[in-house]
Model the fold of this input.
Amino acid sequence: MLSLYCRLIAIEIRAQLQYRVSFLFDFTGTALVIGVEFATLVLVLQRFQNIAGWSLAEVAFLYGMVQMAFGVMDMLFSGFDPGDFGQLVRRGTFDQLLLRPLSVTLQVMGSKFILRRLGRIFNGIAIFAWAVSSLSISWTGAKLVYLPIVFASLVAFYGGLFIIGSTITFWTVESVEVVNIFTYGGTEMMSYPMNIYQDWMRLFFTYIVPAIFLNYYPALYFLDKPDPFNFPYFVHFLAPLAGFGVMFLALKFWHFGIRHYQSTGT
Amino acid sequence: MRLFWELAKLSFQRQLTYRAANLAGLGTNLFWGLLRAALLIALYGTRTEVAGISIQGAITYTGLTQAVITLYMMFGWYDVINSVNTGEVATDLLKPFNYFTFWMAQDLGRAFGGFLLRGVSIMAIYALIFKISLPTALDQWLALGIALILSWMVSFSWRFLVNLSAFWTPNARGIGRLAFTLSYFLSGFLMPLRFFPNWFVDLCNLTPFPSTVNTVVEIFLGVLQGPALIQALLGQILWICILVVASQLALRAGIRQLVIQGG
Done:
């Protein structure tokens, strides 16, 4: 199972590296998009100094973490990108996957592995590394253990959103642009401290989509910042529950969708 | 000339046809606008005015930038590149019509349709949610109208020029991605240019990009007035001349380079 997945991915990578110049352009382009957004923040903060009490380095901690996690997810779950997956459904190519004696999830996961996402990942690493080196975080053993857990939870969370978005296309057939609000919009939102948003927005991303527990609360814990919303202390550690919880529900929904899948007949 | 308007009209109608897509796009733009507004409100904190822009103006700015995305195809426009990749370019070049004007007409229809559907409606929604600043005087509205048309022309000729790279290289999409990222970075789309350090603004002003988003925004907010406004409009005209001439030269050279693929 795993070796088959690795083979599918290896083929994907080799195919993309055939066009070297094209890959290089794509990679730089992707890196540049994130680069200019962060650069804008750096330049503008020279005038404003901080965002609601968060310094540039502290925001960079949030920003870098989110970009790294979303980039890794976007590469691993390229096959579940709702825009591309919608095409599988529309063209009826999804039927082929159902005929093969293999897990459908594995086939979709292995169908795409977009290498140019490395641009976003490297950018996220650079921003995060700069944040950690310029903040004097008082590291403890618990923090060092929790950091990779938070990262994995974020990847699971975004992956879950992609899977939900793809599953919806079983019914809508068209790709649903609204899903972008949660995936790309959620990433953008989580790149900044959550206390800057209006109440209805923040409550939505707390109770309906549990985004606040995946980046904001863990960051409060790592940076020893006070919680402006006075939640009980344990919410700082809800990241794995929120991230893998969303992934679990997404997979349930995905299997439900497959059971009710009706081909477009094309 | 008749043909020009017919092409523009067709492309305008095509833009209006996709109602669901337009509605979904509107929702996405609105959400993004609200995120940017929250960020700016947090940045302002207790300040009421920064670099001549009031907090109300800053909120209006976040709506305006979302409103012009379709007008300028802010995140990239690859139609000419695609037509080279599919080989469609061959039949387009055979038509007894200037290739630049052929695309310009279609882009005019698309931009106008997009501006009406997405641009005007997002500002209307903004006006319901926030207290926004609006141009007050008639001549300000007039200047805004002129600046909008000129800014579209700057944007189109730049996008066309970038797309022509497909006549030389199969990697034109990658070039386009770099070029379009650069143009939205330097145009004042991410933040009002007035918020940036002076050296950066000077750098931006060496490029045609502030003539799109930034000029329109500053006229709308009323921070650009009198001689400075006239200068900005003249700047737009200058950039249009430069970019149109450059496109024509590149087109002439490119046609000799072009390899038609597909069939």
